[in-house]
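job 3f2a | input accepted
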Amino acid sequence: MSNNLGLSYSARKALCVQLGEGAGTEIANLLQRMAAQIEELKRNKVNVTQVVPGVANARDQRLDALMEGETF
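job 3f2a | predicted structure (72 res):
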């Protein structure tokens, strides 16, 4: 993927060849909109302070680590 959250030309072309022009374009546009929304959510992310100090949800920590490692 390129830095502007869009698919590369070859990725778009592969989608269109495999799925047809209309469906490939629709999926590529959907992926681009989803990537933009994820970036917006990351920009507006608010850190939440735990109510009980020292108590952290392990699931939340794993999800945070996964999200921080994602690139689009």
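job 3f2a | Residues 53 and 61 are 15 Å apart (CA to CA).
job 3f2a | closed
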